[in-house]
Amino acid sequence: MNDNRNTILAVILSGIVLIAWQYGMAHALLYSIGITALSVAMNAWVIGWASPTAVGAVPLAVGGSITLALVGYVVARLVTAQREQRVKLAEANEKLANYAATVDQLATSRERNRLARELHDTLSHTLSSLAVQLEAVDSVWTEAPDQAHSLLIKSIANTRGGLAESRRALHALRASPLEDLGLGLALRNLAESAAKRAGLALTADLPKQIEGLSPEAEQCIFRVAQEALENVVRHAHAQEIRVALCQQTAGQWQLVVEDSGRGFDASKVMEEGYYGLKGMRERAAMLDGRLEIDSQPASGTRIRLIL
After folding, report:
1. Mean pLDDT score of the chain, rounded to an integer?
2. How confident is the model at residue 90 (pLDDT cuts 50, 70, 90)?
3. 303 and 224 in contact (C-beta within 8 Å)?
4. If pLDDT is split at 50, 70 and 90, which confidence band does 243 have?
5. What is the domain partition of the chain in residue ranges?
6. Quick check: 206 and 243 in contact, CB under 8 A?
7. CA distance 116 to 110
8. What is the C-alpha to C-alpha distance for residues 57 and 240, in angstroms, rounded to an integer?
9. For residues 80 and 194, what is the distance between their CA atoms, to the nearest angstrom?
10. Is residue 241 a contact partner of residue 247, using CB atoms and an 8 Å limit?
11. Of 3, 143, 148, 180, which residue is 20 to 30 A from 232 by alpha carbon distance?
């Protein structure tokens, strides 16, 4: 007898849980009322409508209905909360996907701008200079052949130099030195290459092993160093250069690129023409870092990146 009652109770509870889970609180309440009414009707039919036992079973049935309603309410609330969390999670995933796509597009756009600057500083300058020299050759070709020959030799030399710079720029765009060498060695090779091209005395304070930096942070440090060194090679007219990377505190790294060149007015770095410095600042800002530029005319330049 007790086993039958337990089985019936388990079936009734399973029913309220399933109905509240699938259809909500209103249907669960109707189910509770229906079970109560059915229980009262069955007792009255078996025992008799006027029986004291049947009358006394009514409060018990009502109490059971209230208990079922409470169970249904709890289940319905849990289901509602779960659905709300699913909706919020889906919205958060969508926002995250949109943010990732935006960051990817921004990174692509910045790399395109960097490529445009590379080509402008190599091919554009070389071709402009070559055009001027060839026009000069053409103008003196008949009257001063020796001078024309000398200008032609210079044009060939400039063409070869521009070709070498273009190849170097394209190789830098294709290469993945961080993956191949690691940040420390990649920075050292970058600094030594820049110093060799410009005939600079190099001081490199770079650790061999670098740990605790995310791939994004390593990429930012390398690209900022690359841009800073390229600016030194092309514009600084320096004799010495120093590149240093160190960990200031736990989780904070500092990159310094310093030269003894002619310097510039650092207050004008955001004006038109300083796209490389703007790009470095944008890279730092993307990782919540900062870029400090200390320079004065005839006093050299110090670029400091802090992540």
Report:
1. 78
2. confident
3. yes
4. very high
5. 2-97, 178-307
6. yes
7. 10
8. 100
9. 63
10. no
11. 180
Structure tokens given for 282: 């944008």
Q: Which residue has the tokens 């490389």?
A: 276
Residue 122: band (very low, low, confident or very high) from pLDDT cuts 50, 70, 90 = low
The tokens describing 301, both together, are 């330049």
Helices 25-47 and 2-23, axial angle in degrees (round to 10)? 150
Kindly report whether the global pTM for this prediction surpasses the value 0.85. no
Query: Cα(first)–Cα(last) distance of the chain, in Å?
Result: 74
The DSSP bridge pattern shows strands 301-306 and 252-259 to be: antiparallel
Cα–Cα distance measured from residue 236 to residue 302, given in angstroms and rounded to the nearest whole number: 11
Nearest-angstrom CA–CA distance, 178 and 215: 9
Sheet holding 290-295, edge to edge: 201-205, 240-249, 252-259, 301-306, 290-295
Q: Which two tokens stand for residue 229?
A: 């060194």
Angstrom distance (rounded) from CA 225 to CA 220: 8
CB 35 within 8 A of CB 65: yes
Of 189, 260, 201, whose CA–CA distance to 225 is shortest?
A: 189
CATH architecture, range 178-307: 2-Layer Sandwich (3.30)
